[in-house]
Amino acid sequence: MDIKRFHTLFEAFVDNVNSVIHGKDDVVRLSLVAVVAGGHILFEDVPGVGKSMLARAIGASMRSDMSRVQCTPDMLPGDITGSSIIDTKSMKFVFRPGPVFANVVLVDEINRATPKTQSALLEAMAERNVTVDGTTYALPRPFLVLATQNPVELAGTFPLPEAQLDRFLFKLTMGYPDLEAERAVIRGNVSSLEVEGLEPVMTAKEVLEMMALSAEVKLSSAVETYILEIAQASRNEPALLLGAGPRASIALAKASRVMAAADGRSQVYPEDVKALLTPVIGHRVMLTPDAVLRGDTVTDILERVVGRIKPPMAAGTGSASGLGAGPDGGGANGSAAAAPRRAAPRRRPAAAGTR
């Protein structure tokens, strides 16, 4: 696979999901960036805006195994990971895999599960393994958790701890659709759900190939330093009680590589990093009580932090070899200093920005 093929598959996937998720192109693109970066996504928004439909559309667009878990307070960890049962023929315990053994796992209303059950996802999300009765089982690749939660109706829910929030690459919100997009939603779901007729446009093998290619995208030392300076500055920001940790820096570097490859480029630009700040870092930091009282949001604080850091010049970022770079070492069009076409979503990145 080369950069051109990567870009073609990325656009095909986005177009396929956009055919049933109307007016949310920026969220769809960010979601696929997370998929190719090998990360997990937490969708947080009010009920009925299409969180679960987007997660289903992502799974349906991939020719892979998909499962769904509807979280409830009485759910046990074994309901997710699987458990050992007695085989009546051999009279021995055998392991029966749970719904987590799939390429795409939709965990609906994750904050309604108890902390004990939520923790069952922790090893799966971080290590891509499940340990039951002392035996470790590898999960299929690619492995992606798409979790949803509502910021309202909090009675009887269990907020995710910081350790588990940090396992999600992105935290995104859908937002309400505009008038014409909502009209398309109404017309498309009259007799049945549009997502039920969605056909896959990508195989699990192609997703793995895209992951491997994105890891080879050039991240210059200048852009790498830019990412590190942003993380360091967030830790020294007076309005933040908790700054971005090293895992956030890793996530930002991975996602930026995918963003560049999706744009047909073989190198990362500072604009890629800026466009991903809130989706990647927004849920990993905490505001101080004073900042909350002032009405500050995480998005405002991050914009202030990054505004104090001088970005490197894109023309000096160099080029990557063997990735379909143009003759001048830039992206698919051979321009080293051209601005990324989709580094910045058309709307403000739909990431949760108030914590």
Topology:
Layout: H1 3-18, H2 25-36, E1 41-44, H3 51-60, E2 62-63, E3 66-70, H4 78-81, E4 82-87, E5 92-97, E6 104-108, H5 115-127, E7 129-132, E8 135-138, E9 144-149, H6 162-165, E10 170-172, H7 179-188, E11 202-203, H8 204-214, H9 221-235, E12 240-242, H10 246-262, H11 270-275, H12 277-281, E13 286-287, H13 289-294, H14 298-307
Parallel strand pairs: 1-9, 1-10, 2-11, 3-6, 6-9
Antiparallel strand pairs: 4-5, 7-8, 12-13
What does this protein look like?
By secondary structure, the chain is an alpha/beta fold. It is globular and about 70 Å long. The longest helix is centred in the last third of the chain and has 17 residues. The two termini are 40 Å apart. A five-stranded parallel β-sheet has the order 3-6-9-1-10. Strands 2-11 form a two-stranded parallel sheet. Helix 1 crosses helix 2 and helix 9 crosses helix 10. It contains 14 helices and 13 strands. It has two domains: 204 residues, 3-Layer(aba) Sandwich (Rossmann fold); 102 residues, Helicase, Ruva Protein, domain 3.
In whole angstroms, the N-to-C terminal distance is 40 Å
User: Which residue ranges are poorly predicted, with pLDDT under 50 across at least 5 consecutive positions?
Assistant: 315-350
* Number of self-contained structural domains: 2
Query: Could you estimate the helical fraction of the residues in percent?
Result: 25-40%
**What is the rounded Rg?**
21 Å
The counted number of beta strands is: 13
**Under CATH, the topology of the largest domain is which?**
Rossmann fold
Largest sheet, spatial ordering of strands = 3-6-9-1-10
N-to-C series of helices and strands: HHEHEEHEEEHEEEHEHEHHEHHHEHH
User: How would you sum up the major sheet?
Assistant: 5 strands, parallel
Compute the average pLDDT: 85
Residue fraction in strands: 5-15%
Coarse morphology: globular
The CATH class label of the largest domain is Alpha Beta
For CATH, the homologous superfamily of the largest domain is named as P-loop containing nucleotide triphosphate hydrolases
Number of helices: 14
CATH architecture of the largest domain: 3-Layer(aba) Sandwich
Structural class: alpha/beta
